[in-house]
Amino acid sequence: MRRLRASPLLSIGPAAPGPALRRGALVAVPVALALIFEFSFGWPSHGAIATSALVCGFTALDAPAGPRTLWQAATAPLIGAGAALGVLSGQWAPAAVLAMGVVGAMSGYCFADTLRLAFAGFGVAVALMITQDLSLPAHAALPAFAYGTIGGLLQAAWALCVWLVYDRAADGKSGWDWGRTKERLRSNLTLDSLAARHALRYGTALAFGVAVYRAIGMREHGYWIPLTILFVLRPEHDETDRRLALRAIGTVVGLALATGLAIGFDGAEPWIVISLSIAAALSFGLITVQYALFTAAITTYVVLLTDTLGESRIDAAGQRLLGTAVGIAIAYLAFRIYPEQRRAR
């Protein structure tokens, strides 16, 4: 597996800001469209389709529109399945912990193949942890699957339109090689493998994060703990430490910005939809440019969306800060308890 290299803390890169931000704006179009319809017409999905489109948009974000279509279409039902599993497992705390541990480990093990596969696993894990925290009744599993799948397919349909109209000359190969993937997954199935050790560390840390917020009764914003772990914990120690610092900086900035916008807009949905769309575009554009700025953008999206759904601004901000701090602490300890092996492949 190609090792991930940590760059200086506040550096810009590896992607150039201009092209990355232009691509981010393009990929954010389905998110904006979903937000407009969900809030303008009072759809019962309450932003779930837009959020699924946001999560699925990170899959194959580096690829031209043609292969991105294939990756996102394949990932969409998996995100829907993750959302449905989150509803069902969220009924009982031990089931929630177990489901998060298993899905988290599988997501982490996807690093054994490619970053595109890893981002697909990331999307499934995000859908799972969000719906686990919502405490929805079991009969909501089917709508959760539908909303998750529709949002992902909306991204894939938009990528197909871009390919047909604009990107036909780009390389249309998906980069998917089932034989190569099977060989990489098989050959990394050993504790001498960086990917296997990361999968165990990742799944255990995420399960522990769910157990912590369930144990302390942090039900409304508890998913912020595993979400922080999901974002910062990477196969290599130095890259994880870098992300821990940048996650803390970005979260504080994003919380301050989102809270200020929520107070300023005071429920004015057109301005909130515009701000959410811009935050989504910046999230896509900045993930390969500057991680702290990406964190600020994605935090702004989540906080503004939940504020629109009626949550207390000040209480929510405080709980998210607490959740981020706990998640950072768990991720930090995960590498100390189960360290990286220097000989890992």
What secondary-structure arrangement, pairings included, does this model have?
Layout lengths: L16 H11 L1 H12 L7 H10 L7 H25 L3 H17 L5 H19 L7 H25 L12 H10 L6 H22 L8 H9 L4 H29 L3 H18 L4 H18 L4 H25 L8
Which structural traits does this protein have?
345 residues; mainly alpha; 14 helices; 72% helix; globular; disordered N terminus
Q: Determine the fraction of residues in helical runs and give it as a percent range.
A: over 70%
End-to-end Cα distance, whole Å, is 6 Å
Q: Which structural category do the helix and sheet elements fall into?
A: mainly alpha
Rg from alpha-carbon coordinates: 19 Å
Total strands: 0
Helix count equals 14
Which ranges are low-confidence, i.e. pLDDT below 50, for 5 or more consecutive residues?
1-7
Shape: globular
Number of domains: 1
What is the residue-averaged pLDDT? 87
List the quaternary state of the chains. single chain
Task: Write the element-wise H/E pattern from the N-terminal end onward.
Answer: HHHHHHHHHHHHHH
Can you walk through the features of this model?
Helices cover 72% and strands 0% of the residues. It is mainly alpha-helical and 345 residues long. It has one domain. Helix 3 crosses helix 4 and helix 4 packs parallel to helix 6. The longest helix is centred in the C-terminal third of the chain and has 29 residues. It is globular and about 55 Å long. It starts with 16 loop residues before the first helix and ends in an 8-residue tail after the last helix.
